[in-house]
Amino acid sequence: MPTYNKLVRDRIPHLIMSQGKECRTRILDPEEYKQELRTKLREEVEEYFVADKDQDALEELADMLEVIRALAEEHGANAAELDKLRADKAEARGGFQERVFLIDVDEGKS
């Protein structure tokens, strides 16, 4: 029997049981949940970096968004508030569409 010991999407236990399998789960306390969300984000990022097809990469990005939204909730913001923060930063500092790559900054000039 494989052991996973990881945070999974809410419907995963139901999907496992619908295949005639059994699984054990538990509900995490708030601190464990926040830590496991951070671990899950790292897992999804790693999966994104090994994705070799656009569709696989997009699915990993979607997974990251789901985890990021859950983390935002844990930090006291909903998805709309998080997107407003993102938009405000984009307004003030720009986005990444222009592909600007900063090489260096000469600190001697003011």
State which percent range the strand residues make up: under 5%
Low-confidence stretches: none
Main structural class: mainly alpha
**So what's the overall shape?**
elongated
Distance between the termini: 64 Å
Mean pLDDT: 96
Give the helix tally.
4
Organism: Paenibacillus peoriae
InterPro entries: MSMEG_1276-like_NTP-PPase_dom
Protein name: House-cleaning noncanonical NTP pyrophosphatase (MazG superfamily)
Core attributes:
110 residues; mainly alpha; 58% helix; single chain
Can you walk me through this structure?
This protein is mainly α and about 110 residues long. The protein has a domain at about 30-90. Helices cover about 60% and strands about 0% of the residues. It contains 4 helices and no strands. It has helices at about 10-20, 30-50, 55-75, 80-95. Helix 2 (about 30-50) runs antiparallel to helix 3. InterPro entries: MSMEG_1276-like_NTP-PPase_dom. This is House-cleaning noncanonical NTP pyrophosphatase (MazG superfamily).
Short account of what is shown:
The chain has helices spanning 12-18, 30-50, 54-74, 79-93.
Fold topology:
Layout: H1 12-18, H2 30-50, H3 54-74, H4 79-93
Helix pairs in contact: 2-3
